[in-house]
Write a structure and sequence with these properties.
Length: 438
């Protein structure tokens, strides 16, 4: 198998460590086989194919730890008569978006979402599909598209009893069957168990979701305290807050991926940390729904593994990283919280850890060759000390020159490979028009 040497201006292989000027990455097949100076790699692999990228910084590719790919269809629908988070769900999102999705609409949205992920440097993602009238079979529709794009996707269906108990059971079965099918097929697409929240799922239903996940040794995802509504609901119905309620059910642990976690108290943060629960943080969509500001610095300080996600809203990890780094500074009036390298770590290796992927998020021998080439043509000098800040604040998808997933180039010289973008755009516009017309 041939070796490819990618010679960067600088390699930032592990975002918890210093970048290395004048280094490159050696890739063979799906994996990284070596890192080192240009001279060392050329001497070690004299017959390798060389990609000259000395005008770029090489970094690990991004992990989007919380996506709703179908959300692209809803961008721009006017929010009318919405007051608060519960109203956002009941008066807008559920009836106008989730309940109208069909297999063909989902397929068009996933195609467009995959294009945007490649353009913004995402090679690994977790998606939560919310479409109660599109099951069974909705996850396989998503998977077919993701496999064609050759991205690494963890897919789930958000099971909920909000429509009916029978529909909830269909949702759980959708997840369980999909996990089993992916195991049989192998490849980069896998499944996860998922249910909605405490206010749309009974205790028995939640326990059933965890039992099905335990039988298959997969993680469980749920939305948690995205706004004030769920804490208020739990206090009224269970006399405790949501995290403590889950603790009482005995379901918390490192197999749990909780998204949002905006309205959580200090006691709940400590419980999440003590049980090893992973959290995905969506700062921009939290603003959209008026949910508030998640206590991310406090969660990180407590030892919670916090990853980043787009939530299907602004599908740009650069923007999400900026929001994750800047919002806490304003909230706490402290410019030192969530430094740039921490935000990058949340978008890479923390996301991989949240999804249970041990060989993604860091460039190291034996790890998946998932990497980005980011243009280094900034107006000020790049150094080991300022690289994280300069990339965080002044780089965007338009500055991504290369995207590699499992050793395969998906984007080169700024262009997505083998894709008719105008045809994808026309398809998703048609799908969105049909969704909006209902």
């Amino acid at each position: 198998m041939s070796v490819t040497l990618i010679m960067g201006h600088m390699v930032w292989a592990d975002t918890t460590r210093s970048p290395q000027p004048g280094w490159g990455v050696a890739v063979e097949g799906e994996r990284v086989v070596a890192l080192g100076t240009h001279g060392h790699l050329r001497a070690r692999f004299p017959d390798a194919t060389v990609v000259e990228a000395e005008d770029c910084v090489v970094t690990p590719a991004f992990v989007n730890a919380h996506h709703h790919m179908y959300g692209a269809l809803a961008h721009g629908i006017p929010l009318e008569d919405v007051s608060g988070f519960r109203s956002f769900l009941e008066d807008f999102w559920w009836p106008r978006v989730e309940d109208r999705l069909s297999h063909d609409l989902i397929a068009a949205a996933v195609d467009w979402a995959c294009l945007n992920m490649v353009r913004s440097g995402v090679t690994t993602f977790y998606d939560c599909l919310e479409a109660p009238y599109a099951i069974p079979g909705a996850l396989e529709v998503e998977a077919d598209v993701v496999r064609r794009w050759r991205l690494r996707g963890v897919l789930s269906f958000e099971a909920t009893e909000r429509v009916s108990a029978e529909n909830g059971e269909l949702g759980l079965r959708e997840n369980a069957d999909f996990v089993d099918d992916c195991r049989r097929q192998g490849g980069p697409v896998s499944g996860m168990m998922c249910f909605h929240t405490t206010f749309t799922c009974s205790a028995d239903f939640i326990r059933q979701a965890f039992a099905l996940a335990a039988e298959r040794d997969v993680k469980v995802h749920m939305h948690l305290s995205e706004g004030t509504y769920e804490p208020e609901y739990c206090l009224t119905h269970f006399d405790t807050r949501p995290v403590i309620y889950y603790q009482r059910l005995g379901v918390l642990g490192p197999h749990v991926l909780a998204s949002q976690c905006v309205q959580v108290k200090a006691e709940e943060v400590n419980v999440l940390a003590s049980h090893g629960v992973h959290v995905s943080h969506q700062p921009i969509s939290n603003c959209e729904v008026g949910g508030g500001f998640a206590p991310v610095p406090e969660m990180l300080e407590a030892g919670v593994n916090v990853a980043l996600g787009t939530d299907g809203y602004v599908d740009n990890l650069f923007e999400v990283m900026r929001a994750a780094a800047l919002m806490p500074k304003a909230r706490l009036r402290d410019p030192g919280v969530v430094p740039a390298d921490v935000a990058w770590t949340m978008a890479t290796q923390n996301g991989a850890r949240a999804l249970g992927l041990e060989d993604v998020g860091v460039l190291a021998p034996g790890h998946q060759a998932d990497l980005l080439l980011i243009s280094a043509d900034l107006p000020t000098p790049l150094t080991r000390c300022n690289l994280a800040d300069l990339l965080l604040l002044w780089r965007n998808p338009c500055d991504v020159r290369g995207v590699m997933c499992a050793g395969r180039w998906l984007l080169r010289d700024g262009n997505v490979i083998g894709v008719d973008e105008e045809a994808l755009r026309a398809r998703v516009v048609d799908a969105a028009t049909r969704l909006w017309q209902g």
